[in-house]
Amino acid sequence: MAKDLQTVIDGERMSARQWIAVAITICLNALDGFDVLSSAFAGPGIKKEWNLGPDGLGAVLSMELIGMGVGSLVLGGMADKYGRRPTILTCLVLMGIGMFGATTAHSPETLSAWRVLTGLGIGGMLAATNAVVFELSNLKWRSFALALMVIGYPLGAFFGGLVAAELLKTHDWRSVFMFGAIATTVFFPLVLLFVPETPAWLGQKRPAGALEKINRTLTAFRHSAIPALPPLNPQAVGAGFADIFKGPFRRATLVLSVGYAAHMMTFYFILKMVPAILSDPQFAGQNFSRSEGAGVLAYANLGGAIGGACFGWFMHRFGVKKATIGALVLSVLGVAHFGLGQTSLQGWTLAVIFAGLFTNSAVVGFYAAFAAAYPTQVKATGTGFALSVGRGGAALSPILAGLLFQSQLGLMNVALVMAMGSLLALVLLMFLPVKDPDPKEWGQAD
After folding, report:
1. Residue 420 near residue 396 (C-beta atoms within 8 A)
2. H helices within 103-239, ranges in order?
3. What torsion do the CA atoms of 311, 313, 317, 323 make, to the nearest 10 degrees?
4. CA 179, CA 267: separation in Å to the nearest integer?
5. Cα 276–267–314 angle (5° rounding)?
6. Those residues with Cβ within 8 angstroms of residue 86's Cβ, 6 or more apart along the chain or in another chain
7. Contact call for residues 150 and 29 (beta carbons, < 8 A)
8. pLDDT at 117 over 90
9. How many CB atoms lie within 10 A of CB 212?
């Protein structure tokens, strides 16, 4: 009898049915990418309608990030307790209601409330989908599948940004949120049909009918059914939130969560502030339109997707730690280069592609570490905690950038300050174990 159900999946080939489930998680992450940045695409219109200053707009843009922090922690734990699949469905409901609600907002306060609700769903979704991809992929293809899942985020922002740019030519900023609401609703039945509960979770939690559910999933994956449930891992019994701060998990939890938060401050400076910067002649040199600003931000996410896709090879070649440190070095340089400013729309586009390529590559590295650092019983909890702390850095980003701009520091100085987040993450990452670059050694205990 196999030691656990993850081992069963690890040893089998990846079937078409597994790849379909992975593809849906990629789309869910793409949906998250668009939903998070929908307020950035809509930002210039929001600023104009309610006459907001840089600090006021920065506060509005931070609201879904605050919700994401809470959602990652609370709903991440829900994914370990109640299952990956029901958590994803719950998150889709929250996201859909929040996006529809944003179309009805008539003040910064009401819009902020709807964005917090949307963020709750997004935060839980990120923790749950990361666990799903890890647990439904075999050992051979796991790193590749995780990299694909992570680059879904910038791909969603890229293609969603192109749609937003077209919508903003003829409609107001509320149309961006309506598009996101419709897209979110479409994915609910797709998850019901094609994303099963993971055998690894069922084997650990053992709800009623666990064996039958596991075998139904294994059959759909064209794998052999198991005659009985494998023995429980004693360490999994009663596992909870406190376990991510014990034994071999403590250092990974602290270093990864704080490092991720620091990098998120830099990452979201580009993703949240680009349209507002380009719409202000003081920084952009000319007054680009809302549609042009959204288009440039879309290409920042294209750069992120390209970087994330290529980064999987670097992780395989050099290990997660070394590859991520390299990406963080280039992230600092990319954001600093963005701060130099440009004289044309093409120049701005190339600058944000360069910055997005390396900032998102580092995000891929962090996600690979999250998924591999924890065993099944606390995988979503550990990932959710790291994401929750990370959202603190993400929420701080537009607020801090807005305050720095309000203080008349200038784009170059603001960009240098914001790039320090990636530099801090780089330093912290050096404290991770170095004896083996394979993240499976970073605390995997089951």
Report:
1. no
2. 108-136, 142-170, 174-194, 199-205, 210-220
3. 0
4. 24
5. 140
6. none
7. yes
8. yes
9. 11
Query: For residues 35 and 160, what is the distance between their CA atoms, to the nearest angstrom?
Result: 9
- Whose structure tokens read 């991809």? 133
Closest CA to 307 of 331, 289, 290, 276: 331
335: tokens are 């954001």
Condensed to tens digits (0 to 9), the pLDDT of residues 42-67 reads 888 888 899 888 778 878 877 887 88
What lies within 8 Å, CB to CB, of 193 at 6+ separation is none
- CA dist., res. 445 & res. 212, Å (int): 26
**CA dist list (Å): 297 to 109, 284, 351:** 25, 14, 11
Q: What angle do CA 40, 42, 43 make, to 5 degrees?
A: 60
The DSSP call for residue 221 is T
Q: Say if residue 435's pLDDT is above 50.
A: no
Question: Which has more confidence, 165 or 220?
Answer: 220
Three-class SS of residue 234? Answer: helix
What one-character-per-residue DSSP string does 303-338 give?
HHHHHHHHHHHHHHHH-HHHHHHHHHHHHHHHHHHH
DSSP state of 419: H
What tens digit of pLDDT does each residue of 215-274 get?
Answer: 999 999 999 888 888 877 655 555 567 778 887 788 888 899 999 999 999 998 887 788
Whether residue 102 has pLDDT greater than 80: yes
This prediction has a pTM of 0.74
Average pLDDT of the residues of the chain = 84
Instruction: Name the residue with tokens 């109640």.
Output: 82
Amino acid at 56: G
Taking every pair of C-alpha atoms in the chain, what is the biggest distance, in angstroms?
Answer: 69
Q: What are the pLDDT digits (tens) for 340-357?
A: 888 788 888 899 888 988
d(CA 48, CA 57): 10
Kindly indicate the confidence band of residue 442, based on its pLDDT and cuts at 50, 70 and 90: very low
Q: How far apart are CA 186 and CA 99, in angstroms?
A: 13
The better pLDDT of the pair 316, 87 is held by 87
Would you tell me how many other CB atoms lie within 10 Å of the CB of residue 399?
17
Could you give phi then psi for residue 17, rounded to 5 degrees?
-65, -35
Q: Are 269 and 401 in contact (CB under 8 A)?
A: yes
- The mean pLDDT value for 355-380 works out to 81
